[in-house]
Amino acid sequence: MNNRLGEFQTESPQEFSNRLNLPYKDMHLLTRALTHRSYLNEHPEAIEDNERLEFLGDAVLDYIVGVWLYHHFPEMAEGDLTRMRAALVKTSQLAEFGRQIDLGGAIRLGHGEEENGGRKRKAMLCATFEAVVGALCLDAGMEAVEEFIFPFLNKAVVEILNLQKDRDPKSTLQEIVQTGGKPAPRYEVVHDEGPDHAKVFEVHVFDEEVLLGKGNGSSKREASMAAALDALERLNYR
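^ thats the sequence. predicted structure below, dont judge the formating
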């Protein structure tokens, strides 16, 4: 939201917790989870950023999602469970969970990050979502984390299964291309623009000299994945 001066008014940790009906007792812990390191540079009163909580939340999510998949898909093979878990905890998916709860509006950012659109960046939303989960685990325990996370998984897993997002598009494309004994697809960065902290890459993927697809992303890996997905769509495999 914006105040009368046109500056962004960050949602307070208490407001964030109340809005989502989260059982936090320690608001200092939640405040830390919502604090990006850029905020510390401009606010000496802030004690710690959210990076340690992000580390914890990452581990908690791996466990929680693994257990959830194990019980919900009793016939699924180990390799498929691994791919499904990777799809549910990858950066773009966790960022989407963050967007669903308007997490960006509660992140405490420094002015520079604010000006550069940090509230909307996938990496920022993903890291803060992990930190919120880590803080919830410390404050209220695993059961509270499960109650918070499971509704996200119930919805996301249906879309992943329908769109086969758990299947790495680069691996799928490689299998298709190499079926006829050809070499693996070749990925080439053809363009990049923007400052170092916000670059956008364009990647093309080729079957020998034939252009199969194009993709853009905030990293070479993300752009390569997008190019592979574009190629699969053009080849009518998606």
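Residues 51-72 form the longest helix (22 residues).
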